[in-house]
Structure formats: structure tokens, C-alpha cells
Give the backbone structure.
Amino acid sequence: MVTVAKSTGTQNRTLTAGPCFMTRRIVTCVALSLWIGLTFNGSLLEAATLPTADAVLLDLHLSDSDRADIRQGKIVKWSATEGSDRELAVGMVLLAKTKATNFVELFREASAYREEKAVTAYGEIAGDGTLADFAGVRLGPNGEKEALRYLSAGPGEDLNLDVKEIAAFRALKPADGKIVVSNEQVEALVRQTLLSRYQAYRANGLAGIIPYERKNGNRLRAGDELSLSIMQMKLLAKYVPSVHTTLLNYPAVTDGQKALEEHFYWLNLDLFGRPTYALSHRMLFQVGEVYFASDRHYYTSHDYNSLQQGVTALPTKDGTLVITLVRVSTDQVDGFGSSAKHSISRALMGPYFDSLYETLRAQAEKKQ
């Protein structure tokens, strides 16, 4: 059974380094997303019921050489199946000779909050949310330039907004142009936009995510992108189906499928001179002896559409398999040259995992 504890609204400094992709701008953004939660409690599975490490690795469709490297304690990256031309998927696997509970503690130590220059501000959102939860949202860096983008917003990829949001920002600027709109006025509407999107998602989950208006009357539905990403998480569906169901159906879940922990955050990221606002939903699950941490970006203001990341600590007869899988939807890899862009993106994503996994492996070996 999975137990549940709601967020208390206290700030949790657990932003950590994670993966990256495509341009240096997006590399920095996604590198901030990895999160592992607090303290775990629960019953353990009998050793006889545990799968072998190789049985799990076969489900990942890894090569013989990759499986051999993992059994020897090496860290292996792999490219998972992607659900669309817009999706980027990358993973890493480590077999640690330690219990899952010990490994989670080690992971917390290795991935605790570290100073990241790109994070200019962040905050936790409590309950139904109020504008006060977003008081720290500011237009910066280069706030005036970003304010002008919002005031002249239109369909497209420069800002992820829907028709009503675009109209609201444009309405701030008088037609005669005689009144100067302050950054504070734009900031106030950004806060309201984030609050509205948070409330819509919290009430209705993926179905409540407001689409992004694109050119020629097209719409990008981040909820559909996230649903597709979750459906591709076949290993999770096989070994922890209740968690997979929760990720798809949140908040409409049964008591036995609720998260052990869930927290909501807003982030303001300085991405090479431009702020990016992201709304993050973090869930932590324990099912028997298996631990799974999810970080979902269900709204971002530009450059990528959504992110679904999961870290699984799965006990096996050979040790604990730690499997990280990140799926990101971005228009920047769609269309002409998509195959080449995907290849470059996967190469960029790897280094941000390396130091974290090396630390975990070294610490796990010391505590065997």
C-alpha cells in the first residue's frame, strides 16, 4: 500500500542538477529539475519476490555489453523510445550494492539543494494557492525586454500562452501608446497567469493544463505531451502499476495510489539573459520496497513545453537498480533536422548525471 502525506507549505530547498538538451538555454533549465524527497516508511518485500537485475535490464532493451557493464557497477546511459518528434528521452542506470532504503538516504545526501546561478527565485505553493504564493515572481533578468515580449505577445513559440492570456497581456498596453506600462504591472499579470494555471492543473490534472497557442490556429497541448510521455514509461507500468496510474490520472486516484509526498513549486530561471517561469509538481511514492520520485513541469513560459522525470530505486536480488528517465517535449527538435538534433541533445544530457551517479556509487560502496 502507498501512504500519503500532504505538503505542509513549508519551503523545501531541494532543487538539484539534472539533465539538459538541445541548446545551452534548455540544458540549464532541465538541469535544475531532478528532485528526491524526504523520509520514507513502509513494509519491505520478501527477498524471494524480487526480480533479478538482468530481468529488469532486459525490459529496458539494453545491449548485452551495457547489461554487463551495469552488473560490474558501471553507470550506463541509454536512449529510451520517444513518443513523438517533439519528445526527447534519455536515461541512466546504476546497480548499487545496497538496500533501497540506504540508497535513498545516499541519494538525498548527494542531490541535496546546491547553489545554481540560473535559479533567481522559487517558492512553494500551498493548498488552493493565492497570489501571495507567487510574490517572489519578478521579471528578471532583463525585465524590460521580457515585459515588452509579454505586452506584444502573440501565437507562437516565443511565449507559451493561450488566447485569453495573450489578450490580457496585450490589453495592458493602451492603443495610443501614450501611457507607459510598468514592469510591475506585467509582473502582476504573470503571477495571476501562474496562479490560474496552477489551480487548473491541481483541480483537473493533465486535462486541466491550458494549451499553448501556436501560429495558424494550432495549439500545443502540454497535457497530451505529458500523457504520451507517461504512457512510454513501460517499466514503471510493469513493476509499479499503481504509481503509473497515478501519474496519468492525478488527482483522480484511489487512496491506495496516492503519493507519499507531493509538493508544488514555481521557478524563475535565468536562461542566458531571459527568465523562464516553470510550474513543478513533485511526487514521491513508496510501494513496498520500491521508491519512485516524479518531477513534472506542467507549465513553462518558453523554450520547452513540458517535462516528466522519474527516478526509481528498485530492489533486485543483485542490489538496488537506480533508474533515471527524463522525457521532455520541445518544439526545438521537431521538423527539419529532427533526427540530428535528437542525437546532439542526447549527447548533451549525459554529463549532468555523471557526477551525481558517481557520488552515489562511491558512497554506496563505502556503506556496504
Observations:
- Strands lie at 76-78, 87-96, 119-125, 212-213, 219-220, 261-270, 275-287, 290-300, 306-316, 319-329.
- The radius of gyration is 21 Å.
- Residues 24-366 form one domain.
- DSSP finds twelve helices and ten strands in the chain.
